């Protein structure tokens, strides 16, 4: 089983959590919604609990066995999930996720931004970088700040506050 995320370092939207059983291709997609990356939730790191719950939901949906190794992305957002799964007795291995699971996570993140209303798949994919998202948000800040992870301390610098 592989677990990866997408969107953590991106300015817009929430974070997608993907679990994929590599042997069969079975998968589960969860989301840590944008509100977890805004005040006051962000200040209290509530996104860590939401990410843990997304992983637990995925393991349940995929009927993961306790003896099935869980290869988890080393990203910070999984800090609580790693600890919780180990306490529950899962065999969690910290790895760099690449290939099909990473590609699925990236595609699901783009899809989540489309569903949020940021734009079409093509539009979102074409601006997919921190600077691309920042430029897009700043073009019409009054209308687009609602899509931004405003909890990051650097956001005030970018918005001129």
- Assembly state (oligomeric): single chain
CATH homology superfamily: Ribonuclease H-like superfamily/Ribonuclease H
Helix percent band: 40-55%
The low-confidence runs, each spanning 5 or more residues with pLDDT under 50, are none
In total, how many beta strands? 5
Largest sheet composition? 5 strands, mixed
Number of helices: 7
CATH class call: Alpha Beta
- Euclidean distance between termini CA atoms: 43 Å
Strand order of the largest sheet: 3-2-1-4-5
Any idea of the CATH topology? Nucleotidyltransferase, domain 5
Query: What gross morphology would you assign?
Result: globular
Which band does the percent of strand residues land in? 15-25%
Briefly note the structural class of the backbone: alpha/beta
Radius of gyration: 16 Å
Q: What order do the helices and strands follow? A: EEEHEHEHHHHH
In round numbers, the mean pLDDT is: 96
Describe this structure in words.
The chain is of the alpha/beta class and 161 residues long. It has a single domain, classed as Ribonuclease H-like superfamily/Ribonuclease H (Nucleotidyltransferase, domain 5, 2-Layer Sandwich), CATH 3.30.420.10. It contains seven helices and five strands; from the N terminus they run βββαβαβααααα. It has helices at residues 46-61, 79-88, 100-116, 121-126, 130-139, 141-144, 155-159; strands spanning 2-6, 15-20, 27-32, 70-73, 92-95. The protein has a five-stranded mixed β-sheet. α2 links the parallel β4 and β5 (92-95). α1 (46-61) crosses α2 (79-88). The chain starts with a strand and ends with a helix. The relative contact order is 0.19. The mean pLDDT is 96.
């Amino acid at each position: 089983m592989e677990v990866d995320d997408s969107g953590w370092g991106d300015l817009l939207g929430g974070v997608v959590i993907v679990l994929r059983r590599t042997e069969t291709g079975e998968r589960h997609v969860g989301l840590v919604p944008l509100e977890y990356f805004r005040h006051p939730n962000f200040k209290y790191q509530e996104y860590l609990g939401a990410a843990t719950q997304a992983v637990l939901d995925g393991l349940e949906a995929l009927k993961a066995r306790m003896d099935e190794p869980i290869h988890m992305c080393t990203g910070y957002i999984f800090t609580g999930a790693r600890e919780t799964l180990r306490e529950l007795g899962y065999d969690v291995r910290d790895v760099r996720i690449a290939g099909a699971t990473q590609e699925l996570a990236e595609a699901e993140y783009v899809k989540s931004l489309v569903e949020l209303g940021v734009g079409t798949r093509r539009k979102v994919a074409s601006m997919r970088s921190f600077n691309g998202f920042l430029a897009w948000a700043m073009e019409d800040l009054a209308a687009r700040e609602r899509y931004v992870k405003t909890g990051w301390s650097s956001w005030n610098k970018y918005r001129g506050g």
